[in-house]
Amino acid sequence: MSEDDERQQSPPSDLEFVSNKARNCNATGSGSGHPEFQSAYPDQVLENVLENVLHFLTSKRDRNAASLVCKSWYRVEALTRSELFIGNCYAVSPARATARFTRVRALQLKGKPRFADFNLMPPDWGAHFNPWALAMAKAYPWLEKVHLKRMTVTDDDLATLAELLLGFKELVLVCCDGFGTSGLAIFVNKCRQLKVLDLIESEVSDDETDWISCFPEGESQLESLIFDCVECHINFEALERLVANSPSLKKLRLNRYVSIGQLYRLMIRAPQLTHLGTGSFSPSEIAGQGDQEPDYVNAFAACKSLVCLSGFREIIPDYLPAIYPVCANLTSLNFSYANITAEQLKPIISKCHKLQVFWVLDSICDEGLQAVAATCKELRELRVFPVDPREDGDGPVSEVGLQAISEGCRKLQSILYFCQRMTNAAVIAMSKNCPDLVVFRLCIMGRHRADPVTGEPMDDGFGAIVMNCKKLTRLAVSGLLTDKAFDYIGQHGKLVRTLSVAFAGDSDMGLKYVLEGCPQLQKLEIRDSPFGDAALRSGLHHYYNMRFLWMSSCRLTPNGCQEIARAMPRLVVEVIRSADEEEMDDAVEILYMYRSLEGPRTDLPKFVTIL
Amino acid sequence: MANVLGNEHDLNFKETELCLGLPGGVGGGCGGGNEVDSSPKTTGKRGFSETVDLKLNLQAKETGMDLNKNLGNGSKEKPVSAKDPAKPPAKAQVVGWPPVRSYRKNVMASNKSIGEESEKASSAAFVKVSMDGAPYLRKVDLKMYKSYQELSDALAMMFSSFTMGNYGSQGMIDFMNESKLMDLLNSSDYVPSYEDKDGDWMLVGDVPWQMFVDSCKRLRIMKGSEAIGLAPRAMEKCKSRA
């Protein structure tokens, strides 16, 4: 299950002034504060010690801090950093990254901004993995892991990784596109040491290549194979052989082309699984009426280590009781593609006492959520998705469900809740009942919808969240909101790093409150809100500390954006038009800006202008 | 942006959302300013287009600005929606709202169709769908849909940055009306074309639905201007069948 990485990427150290401490360093880089003291082995000893010590530093924030101490530490830290995280692939070029960090084993890259997932950005905007693939292949021949999010990866890139990186072990692609089954075929065939292939919510084109058969014969080291998003048939016999040959396989998530009968056959070969995605969870059409059905309950009972269950892509609820044996051990359950009712959910959820993560469709209604609240006392993360994602659809869940969850699941840390109606009272209740909340994302699907009971805006509800949830780092707001809501956020949301705003606010003041009040703000995405140039100006002091700012369908003008671009040379200010639109002189449709060491990128499509 | 019907931009919301590329079928639901509809058999409401994810920014921007104006006045009321009491109630959807990923939306859409049919068809009719400019192919099972409108909805969800021309009340493009057809093809909107059993590429909508399902081998969504080459043949075939 994907979740945006919440950890902060501090500014690249080139942007920071070398601190005063660093200036006092001995010119030879000994790091001591006493330039007159001459040590016998100044550099060598120190660097050896540093190297050994810094190997223990894993957190990237700690490493960034260490690299700022002085030039010597900077150098040694760069030598010892083995996991490289780049939150915005355009913030730094592959050349610069590989020049500074020479011994990287794992690379994590993020590309497009999140609002691109909702078709707000024209296709082919960028975030190509290709230049990185080529640079990595040259600079890091021993690279083992690549983790990409929202990037465009081609079949050739997959081939590059597989052919040039001999010890490559782990590929994770989240919300990526640009490749197909033929790329996968080459990749799995050439990657002889592959342990992890996780394709999560990515677009994989069907080139009609049987990629599963392309895994090498014989015993495999595969530990994780996730392909539930791949929308094409797979060769089941080949898959069965692969699973049989993978004794270390712990995570297996099948796509919807795997029937429940086929699932059975795989499960009995892999009872050691800890994470299972069940595929369609319905029989294929070929299964006749009179055929004896396998003992699904037994298959699940045999999986004693199963803790994470997902899939159910085309569920026939009659088969649900098969999972009873594993419920008591489950810590994570994803029913978000299963259109089931409260009645169908209850017998399952009542057994899931250890559940910590639960994703579900609103088809379970408030009643289903009440059942969750009654049993799942350990719940940390809840996501409720809409069966009918339309503004004026039916609303099976409401403030009643949210209230129930807040009362039953006191340890809740993260919530994403889609609904058609919500009251301030319920949100306030949650703010008080769940003080550990770190992520609060409420999506009232009707735009500008007020509290249906009081007729008031939703300001007080969100205000209570930022006031009472002292650990809150991520917030998404919705419903009818005035500037007051943003005033609350600016005053109390001191730890907020990610903020999503849509159809909210009255005036520039709203945005000003946030930009002036939230010192930890890293990612700000706004759409269809009345914020203009004046508001944009109020963030000048902070933009270098942010990963990005996205504003679409707001009230920005080219002049206003130009002003920002002039004032901040290390900021890339992109103005994006919708692909077919003529250039509009007086309005900026999409503003996407981010700090970067590289200046304007060279792979601009024609609908993007950099100011 | 080519705007086939009307060029006024201060018309009501409904006008804007509906008047993108259509050969006919100007419904009673539309306000004034429409071209005269000459062919009797293409009257009828444009029900389906109200639920299609429409072209990007023109609509979203208008929405944004209209609503902002209301809020700027300090009004706390829900802003005037596109609804006119006399018109059909369903609202067109704003692009990217609610913020559910296309992948999930597509899965839910196709699951709904599966769920509604208690028994699956004896054999599925999978055809590949490609769209010019889109980086990936999709596949649809034509047997999951009962009409051109349903197919159009599903395709619109999959490739939500395009619009399709309207289908008249009988669900077919009016091929007899050359000028309407030419307007559609001259617009910058996308039209679906398909390869039939004979290997010819035809405009979708020229034959009754069931006949289409039986003869369609592949779908391709192309820009109207590129589909112009198809029209004469399509019309000939149509005329020869009539």
UniProtKB/TrEMBL annotation, chain A:
Family matches, as SUPFAM superfamilies: RNI-like
Gene3D superfamilies tied to this protein: 1.20.1280.50, Ribonuclease Inhibitor (3.80.10.10)
Transport inhibitor response domain location: 103-148
Domain of life: Eukaryota
Lineage: Eukaryota, Viridiplantae, Streptophyta, Embryophyta, Tracheophyta
Annotated InterPro entries: COI1_F-box, Leu-rich_rpt_Cys-con_subtyp, LRR_dom_sf, Transp_inhibit
Domain COI1 F-box residues, every copy: 43-82
Name of the protein this chain belongs to: Transport inhibitor response 1-like protein
Pfam family, one: Transp_inhibit
Organism annotation: Hibiscus sabdariffa
Automatic annotation (TrEMBL), chain B:
Reported function: Aux/IAA proteins are short-lived transcriptional factors that function as repressors of early auxin response genes at low auxin concentrations.
Subunit structure, as described in the record: Homodimers and heterodimers.
Record flagged with keyword Mitochondrion: no
This protein's name: Auxin-responsive protein
Biased composition (Basic and acidic residues): 75-86
Domain PB1 stretches: 124-224
Alphabetized Pfam families for the sequence: AUX_IAA
Domain of life: Eukaryota
PROSITE patterns per UniProt: PB1
Similarity comment text for this entry: Belongs to the Aux/IAA family.
Subcellular location: Nucleus
UniProt source species: Hibiscus sabdariffa
Keywords: Auxin signaling pathway, Nucleus, Repressor, Transcription, Transcription regulation
InterPro entries, sorted: AUX/IAA_dom (IPR033389), AUX_IAA (IPR003311), PB1-like (IPR053793)
Positions of region (Disordered): 31-50, 66-94
Lineage: Eukaryota, Viridiplantae, Streptophyta, Embryophyta, Tracheophyta
